[in-house]
Amino acid sequence: MSIQALKDLIPDYGRDIRLNLENVLTTDDGAPGLTPEQIGGVALACAYSSGNRGVIDGIEGEFAAKVGPAVVEAAKSAATIMGMNNVYYRFTHMVEDKEIAKLPARLRMNVIGSPGIAKVDFELMSLAVSAIEGCGACVNAHVHEARKAGIANEGIQSSIRIAAIITAAKQAIAMK
User: Fold this and answer.
1) How far apart, in whole angstroms, are the C-alpha atoms of residue 59 and residue 152?
2) Contact, 165 vs 41, CB < 8 A?
3) Does pTM top 0.90 for this prediction?
4) Is 70 left (phi over 0), alpha (psi -120 to 50) or beta?
5) Ramachandran angles phi, psi of 78, nearest 5°
6) Residue 116's closest CA among 76, 77, 60, 74?
7) Each residue of 62-119: pLDDT tens digit?
8) Could you write out the DSSP letters of every residue in 11-59?
9) In angstroms, rounded to a whole number, what is the distance separating the alpha carbons of residues 69 and 88?
10) Which amino acids are annotated catalytic?
């Protein structure tokens, strides 16, 4: 499958999403501030996070061979570890009992320290998934790390634009 095949799955009520998919994921200036490998990695992490087979197949078909197996594996790891962390840390920031929030997480997160790819690329993937999952604490932590690694606001915004578009594609397909 490819981006075109993914676009073909999106009904007419999602035509803006079809246009945005092509723009953000397939043009040279669609995701300013990101390298082609970062675009592919962020898109893959968001697709895996979506859980939608059509989205996953389309994004994998477009990017898996271009970015290579290490990035694909890291994208799966980012979607998985953020699935856990976003629930946990969103809870610790929502709970009114701040003593609970102070307790150690006691959750293994080794992949964050050793993702098998450039740390900054993994941070961008984790940022995008955290935005999808709505964890403000994780979003802020990943923005901080991305900036520390030299990613400008434009690159951070591009990661979130990719997350938004892939999430919208999933939604459009689900309503079909």
Assistant:
1) 25
2) no
3) yes
4) alpha
5) -65, -45
6) 74
7) 999 999 999 999 999 999 999 999 999 999 999 989 899 899 999 999 988 899 999 9
8) -GGGHHHHHHHHHHHHSTTSSTT--HHHHHHHHHHHHHHHT-HHHHHHH
9) 29
10) 135, 138
DSSP state of 176: -
In degrees and rounded to multiples of 5, residue 65 shows phi and psi of -70, -30
Residues near 126 by Cβ (< 8 Å), separated by ≥ 6?
A: 45, 78, 81, 82, 112, 138, 142
- Give the H/E segment covering residue 127: helix 119-133
Check: CB of residue 162 under 8 Å from CB of residue 50. no
Backbone CA torsion sign across 164, 129, 169, 22: positive
CB atoms near residue 160 (< 10 Å): 19
Contact status, residue 147 vs residue 31, Cβ threshold 8 Å: no
| Unique residue bearing structure tokens 């980012």 | 78
Q: What single letter denotes the amino acid at residue 93?
A: H
User: How confident is the model over 157-175, as pLDDT tens digits?
Assistant: 999 999 999 999 999 999 8
Residues 6+ apart with CB under 8 A from 76: 44, 45, 48
